[in-house]
Protein: Alpha-1,4-N-acetylglucosaminyltransferase
Amino acid sequence: MLKELQLSLSVILLLACGFLYKLTLKSGCLFSCRLPFKSQQGLEALLSHGRSIVFLETSERMEPPPLVSCAVESAARIYPKRPVVFFMKGLSNSTQLPSNSTHPAFSLLSAIDNVFLFPLDMKRLFEDTPLLSWYTQINASAERNWLHVSSDASRLAIIWKYGGVYMDTDVISIRPIPKENFLAAQSSQYSSNGVFGFLPRHPFLWECMENFIEHYNSDIWGNQGPSLMTRMLRVWCKLGDFQELSDLRCLNMSFLHPQRFYPISYPEWRRYYEVWDTDPSFNDSYALHLWNYMNQEGRTVVRGSNTLVENLYRKHCPRTYKVLIQGPEEPVTGQLGLGSK
Structure:
């Protein structure tokens, strides 16, 4: 009888330990914790299928603001069967974080099944690319726009090595992108680098990395980013103007109509923070770029404002809205989609 009791207690103890272990991994930890990052081999395996959705944080910031959280969550919901990989420079394999009460966005994202957070190791990333020699010689502290330039370089290397889709952290996904090799038009004949996707080892991106070095000038805003993409697009393709809502094709690439990601152009970015009589459907869009770099005024999502951006949060990143905007007072109506819990 005593042995049976001991055995039963042992089983209960093991189950309880397993439950607590699982809870700490998916809730941001009960108290202070060391994050269970995957190995470099695990990262390689995750990215090797060429289907990842990739985000980057090149500053040391550890707690994503609401817009970043919304971007990552919305992608996880739209692509539930694809890994959403968020590289953060501030992370390392020895990073420790306090409880989710002080890092709610980080905890929220780490609890989503198909979201994976990894340290951004630029030197390792640039290995076997033209960017390594540039990176090892550059004096980052003397660079005027280093956070942006290093992000421009990193996104090229990641998508060239592994394939997938890169998105800026102010892009809210609203429906799947049906293309594999594509650039996104910001305006007629001018490419963005805020969203793009390619299969692994695509020669277009290799030539972009070469051009990055040959025409390097970080003092010119966008020279290593959208201007670079536009320069290379013109080398590869002889494109005319968009006809109505049709995308353009060149070789094995698509140049997607501005409506796909930029239905609200950058001079009108404030419209996202305004109340509309009727919210637009964005039926011709795959995702929405909110032009956060233009938002020097620091406009934010205000609970109960009924602005377009608040309604986008409600619909496309409800966990972010509930935890970071709404607070615990009242539940968000509607169900969470796949990829969220």
Notes: The first helix runs from residue 2 to 26. Residues 292 and 298 are 9 Å apart (CA to CA).
